[in-house]
Amino acid sequence: MALLLAQAVDAVKREDFKTCEQSAFCLRHRQFAEGIAETAQQPGLVGSDQPLRSASPYSVVPGSVRLDRHTLLALVEHKDDGVPLKFELTFLAGGTVRVRAQEEAPLAPRFDDTQRHTLRDEGSALPYASPESLQLSSTTANGAVVHTVNFTGEAAASSVRITEQPWSLTYLRNDKPVVQLNSKGFFKFEHLRKRPDGDDAGSADGEWEETFRTWTDSKPRGPESFGLDISFVGFEHVYGIPEHTSPLSLKPTRGGDKGGYDQPYRLYNLDVFEYEIDNPMALYGSIPLMLAHSAEATVGVLWLNAAETWVDVAHEKSSFIGSFFRRGSAGGEPTVSTHWISESGVLDVFLFPGPSVADTYRQYAAIVEQTPLPRDFALGYHQSRWNYLDEADVLTINDKMHEHDIPYDVVWLDIEHTDGKRYFTWDGAKFPNPVAMQERLGRDGHRVVTVVDPHVKRDTSYSVWSEANERGFFARTKDGSSLQGWCWPGDSSWVDLFNPDAAAWFSELYHLDRYNGSTRNLFIWNDMNEPAIFNGPEITMDKDALHDGGWEHRDVHNLYGMLYHKAAADGLRTRESPSLRPFVLSRSYFAGSQRYGAVWTGDNTADWEHLRASVPMVLSNNVAGMHFVGADVGGFFGNPDATLLTRWYQLGIWYPFFRAHAHIDTKRREPWLLGEPYLTHIREAVRERYRLLPYWYTLFREASLTGMPIARPMWMEFPAEKGLFAEDRAFMVGPAIMVVPVTDSDAMLPVDVVFPQQENWYDLHTHELYVGPARRQFSVGLADTLVFARGGSIVPTRERHRRSTALMRRDPFTLYVYVGRAGTAAGKLYVDDGESYGYASGAFIERDLSFANATLVSRPSARTAAGAAAAQASFAASMSGIRVERVVVVGLRNPLTQATVREGGEERTIDLHCGGSQVDAECVVRDPAVRIGGDWEIALA
Ligand code: NOJ
After folding, report:
1. 830 lines ligand 1 (CB under 6 A)
2. Ligand 1 centroid, distance to 477 Cα (angstroms)
3. Does the CB atom of residue 489 touch ligand 1 within 6 A?
4. Ligand 1 centre from 15 Cα, in Å?
5. Where does the Glycoside hydrolase family 31 N-terminal domain lie (predicted)?
6. CA distances for 184 relative to 187, 488, 747, 928, 936, angstroms
7. Rounded to the nearest whole angstrom, what is the distance from the C-alpha of residue 668 to the centroid of ligand 1?
């Protein structure tokens, strides 16, 4: 393992990618912050009994503050430059505050469309606070002018205080500071300016031109970056801002903390070959959403900017903040200070005040649409490799899965299936009849996914290239010609998806009459959409390349992948009428990408370190609202041994997106090639995934409405247990299942499991009881996995072995009741047709299941009532034959003998089969035959 580790660490080509010091604007802001921090250390500032102020040169222009309906307006100026900045603070319902800033009269417009691409309804209809709920007051104390807006946040009196000189903003809940902006004085705004005269005037500090290796960025607009410190007062942990390979609780990046990084976290979508673990380098996706959590509260920040962004994190004690707001306090509240730096665009930040995890996600979901319900098959097992060679190969995969009784849903085709990497085509020799192939797979409910990458081969005989070329749809160089670069097919161009006509045209290429050889059974994988350009700076597009409206690539870089993903999702959605839900996997993403499909963590490596790192990566994405995510099971590069591959399946079934994938140079590794006992263990794991699909689907329903993550860090379910705040091995799948992956090759090593809270936990397979709080060690053989059901939960399953999800659609359900310490349990079941948008008009069944007084009760959830009655009734009728075939009650105090079933005014008594000990009995109600859509009760006695 040591050798593998060393290989992985050596492999990434760091020199291909910039450090903060090599990114001129990042360096300017970091140096500015260092200067400010030094000044703040000087005696006379810290420790004086004056209200402590940072050394920020930016102040509110006196007399400029006013409240206009739900927005507070203020002008802020640097003491030397006389360029007023317009600040807008908008108050939203639920206590969210949005802060925007840019020049009051910019020399040229700044890019401000990130909101249009990310926010609900393009940002046009945010849930504003009512103007009557806001009161502005202003005071002067010791010469300091402070403006306060009082309002009602989420169940708490809240206020925002703005000091004038220098400016800073504090969000307070019940008079306690929670989040502060510019309290450290790192705010710096590079206003747009005219280029100074002279030959190389102004190129110092990389303001007007910057060279990295052999590439020169011409920067025609000069410096336009900005930075701001955001401090979370009373917090020791921050999470989110994927995509990095750091631990879940983000390590500090400066401030002298031991064991931290020396670089900020970078958000700049990049194709990083053989990325390394435990690193703040940028990767394929960027979501500038950060959460802070303490035993008292959770809060969030969305930094809505799609340009290159860096985030420094420091763990501090906030003495001056504490003393400013609470005189006489000893100070020293733990604080996480962050410093956000973006290259261009406007400053646009949302503060979500929580205070619970659910509140924070509700506040985020109010402004950004969450993961929509996926196609049911997309939650199944995806079998991929670069590449399945031809039709015979694909059909063999299908046959072997059947032969070995492994359920699966999708076979994936990577770039080699095309005619010379011309996407939307097939290699005719290898895939002479793709339609017949898809139909053959479709007989058992299986599907095909093909890859469509954004580089368009420059070839006049390729219709995609010639149409785009004719219509001027390609992104352009700074000189206005079609941008050219190198990727898989050789010389290529990239469609400018910021041009709405180009995006509409491109999405239609996915239609059945445009994409030859595609059927309704074919779905899409978008890879390389950062975009990856092999001969571009940092393997991507030049920042001074141009998009629709004359915007530079610099302004929009982190949006490109999302718009490419959107075009595919739009294309699939509109390829048939009525529309069915699309399925599209993307490598690159931004905040809001969750609306278009799944993502994965890119090119990982087949070693234990990458297996371990996949957990915090999947969790960090979930924290940031990207729920439908997984890592390549088995590892992309290299050959996993049979133990690693088995363990990876045993973990991978708990990723929301579950796909096995491998590099073209690796050995074949489909499960049956491993032989026994591995094949059996893998089959068992995959079957576990299928058994629990009703639970997974219900979690996706929850996520779609509330934004609650699917794969959850332990702290989300146990928010007061400090010992779990940095846990990034064990995690929760929804509220009911705890997964403790085995992440080591040595089976002899005992695995530590922490059972949180005063609660019962049951081994998911043996139902053995563990009572929390407790820490236990388990010795595990390869057949053993450490997965536990939380007492107090009800988990719906389907237990019949089938070949695919489609073949399970009319199967009966089994309900598991895991009795909690209080003798009760609760859960949900959500069912719809798994493919259409009928759910939007009420065609679904959603039940609240509860267990108390030894009685299991099914009632409609409040949401069912909100749907349209006709659609509901007809869906319920279509499901009337679907019953509960078994109820398993785990953890009863005493074995009981009979079950009374009440449904539709009728009552029946059936035998109950109980086993186990007096204190921990397990009872099975065989075939109570209640309908899943009906109201019923099963009383045990
Ligand atoms: C890079 C992707 O990350 C990988 O999954 C894929 O197999 C190769 N490109 C080839 O398409």
Report:
1. no
2. 26
3. no
4. 22
5. 87-312
6. 8, 47, 49, 64, 59
7. 16
Atom of ligand 1 nearest to the CA of 387: 7
Does any ligand 1 atom lie closer than 6 A to the CB of residue 414?
A: yes
Q: What is the DSSP string of 710-745?
A: SEEEHHHHSTT-GGGTT--SSEEETTTEEEE----S
Q: Is the CB–ligand 1 distance for residue 18 below 6 Å?
A: no
Q: Is the CB of 386 under 6 A from ligand 1?
A: yes
List active site positions: 527, 603
Q: Which atom of ligand 1 is nearest to the CA of 414?
A: 11
pLDDT band (50, 70, 90) for residue 869: confident
| Per-residue confidence band for 916, with pLDDT thresholds at 50, 70 and 90 | confident
Mean pLDDT of 816-836: 97
Q: How confident is the model at residue 921 (pLDDT cuts 50, 70, 90)?
A: confident
- Say if ligand 1 is within 6 A of residue 449 CB: no
Q: Is the pLDDT of residue 119 over 90?
A: yes
Q: What per-residue confidence (pLDDT) applies to 320? A: 46
Confidence of residue 466 (pLDDT cuts 50, 70, 90): very high
Q: Ligand 1, atom 4: nearest CA belongs to which residue?
A: 603
Q: Report CA(507)–ligand 1 centroid distance (Å).
A: 22
């006196």: which residue's tokens?
62
Cβ of 602 below 6 Å from ligand 1: yes
Mutation to probe ligand 1, out of 636, 637, 661 (largest number of atoms < 8 A from CB):
636
Using one digit for the tens of pLDDT, what is the confidence trace for 292-330? Answer: 999 999 999 999 999 999 999 999 886 544 333 333 334
Please provide the distance, in angstroms rounded to a whole number, between the alpha carbons at the two ends of the chain: 55
Which atom of ligand 1 is found nearest the CA of 527? 2
- Asked whether residue 625 carries a pLDDT value surpassing 90, the answer given is yes
Q: Which two tokens stand for residue 887?
A: 């109820």
How many C-beta neighbours within 10 Å does residue 587 have? 26
Give me ligand 1 centre to Cα 540, in Å: 16
Locus of tokens 């299936």:
417
The DSSP letter of residue 248 is: S
Q: Which residue has the higher pLDDT, 862 or 296?
A: 296
Q: Which domains does the chain have, with CATH numbers?
A: 14-190+225-365 (2.60.40.1760), 377-453+501-535+558-706 (3.20.20.80), 711-940 (2.60.40.1180)
CA distances from 842 to 308, 696, 839, 876 (A): 42, 20, 5, 10
C-alpha dist (Å) from residue 196 to 86, 200, 203, 216: 25, 9, 9, 19
Q: How many CA atoms lie within 13 A of 517 on its CB side?
A: 19
Query: How distant is the alpha carbon of residue 666 from its chain centre?
Result: 29
* Rounded Cα–Cα distance for residues 635 and 655 (Å): 14
- Mean per-residue pLDDT for 391-415? 98
Q: Ligand 1 center to residue 393 CA distance, Å? A: 19
Nearest-atom index, ligand 1, CA of 603:
3
Q: What is the rounded average pLDDT for all residues in the chain?
A: 94
Which is it for the CA torsion 634, 635, 636, 639, positive or negative? Answer: negative
> 530 CB less than 6 Å from ligand 1?
no
Q: How far apart are CA 416 and CA 393, in angstroms?
A: 13
**Mean per-residue pLDDT for 727-755?**
94
Pick the atom of ligand 1 nearest to 663's CA. Answer: 7
The confidence score (pLDDT) of residue 865 equals 55
pLDDT digits (tens, 9 = 90+) for 686-728: 999 999 999 999 999 999 999 999 999 999 999 999 999 999 9
Express each pLDDT in 373-388 by its tens digit.
999 999 999 999 999 9
CA distances from 88 to 119, 188, 302, 627 (A): 18, 17, 16, 31
Rounded to the nearest angstrom, the distance between the alpha carbon of 387 and the centre of ligand 1 is 10
- How many C-beta atoms surround the C-beta of residue 889 within 10 A? 26
The pLDDT value given to residue 42:
53
